[in-house]
Amino acid sequence: MANTGKHLYGPVPSRRLGLSLGVDIVPFKTCTLDCVYCQLGKTTCKTMERKEYVPVSEILDELQEVLDAGLAADYITLGGSGEPTLHSGIGRLIKGIKKLTSIPVAVLTNGTLFYLPEVRKDCVDADVILPSLDAGDQKTYEAINRPVEQLTFDMLVEGLCALKRDYPGQIWLEVFFVDKLNTDDAQITKISEAIKKIRPDKVHLNTAVRPTAEKNVEKVAPDKLEEIARRLSPNCEVIADFVSGHCRKTASDIPQALLSMLKRRPCSLNDVCSVLGLDVADAMVYLDELKDQGVIWSENKQGKTFFGAF
Ligand code: SF4
Predict the structure, then answer these.
(1) Model's pTM, two decimal places?
(2) Number of domains in the chain
(3) Counting Cβ atoms within 10 Å, is residue 175 exposed (0-12), middle (13-18) or buried (19+)?
(4) How far is the CA of 101 from the centre of ligand 1 (A)?
(5) Rounded to whole angstroms, how far apart are CA atoms 243 and 124?
(6) Would you say residue 289 lies in a domain?
(7) What is the position in ligand 1's atom list of the atom closest to the CA of 82?
(8) Does residue 220 lie within any of the structural domains?
(9) Tens of pLDDT along 163-215?
(10) Are 232 and 262 found together in one domain?
(11) pLDDT tens digits, residue range 249-264?
């Protein structure tokens, strides 16, 4: 089943969470950062303002409809078009989801606001929190993540340490490597020291396998990433490309579902096939139709074709 609603999308394949129903709780693209590698393009609303960007009741009503239709997902993931902890109702939302379903709730966050006690409290009922840390010092933080002025690297690390202290669930930290920006020896040593302080349950390494906000963002080679993983932390793992073990039903309105999915993030042909339950030939028919209508684009990224919506 693929959803075509206002706030929910997918389930989509996630390299870390299996099949994940995405919940978009801030408008495109509202974030505290403007990462060079962002799959959503440049941040159009860079802010630290927490508010109820979308009514919580509206999201819960939409989720109820999807659950009634027989949702099959490994996680319900708060994330989407920006930074979800900017939504001041995220605590109420997580509690509300927990009342509706036993599907675990994940929060996909850049981690910048965990220095605020109220944000840590809001996320306490999530099953897993997946924050990011891509730098070992202020200079590299600014180069890769381009935060709003008030946010510093020290605030990020201190916030994540406080989260570890206050939050009983799983913390899976993601480190995104961009070749030549954060891959030198000194940077890896500093990132490793920060990880030791934060003590996440898992560390996931990622690199630019999808089209990014800035064109010159370079992917790190798999063997180099494995070597970095060995240096960083014993619980560190390179996230392999998603391989679907799930059997998907065919969506009733495939072009609409496909467009909804591509609006959230660029996807490869394999992603499209696994989410929509299509074989390659059928998926290409739908993709070609949408391309002819001028509503989607395709781009080759290091030998793999990705599709995204305008
Ligand atoms: S990658 Fe995440 S944290 Fe970075 S700009 Fe994009 S939405 Fe924000």
Answers:
(1) 0.82
(2) 2
(3) buried
(4) 28
(5) 31
(6) yes
(7) 7
(8) yes
(9) 999 999 999 999 999 999 999 999 999 999 999 999 999 999 999 877 788 88
(10) no
(11) 344 567 777 887 788 7
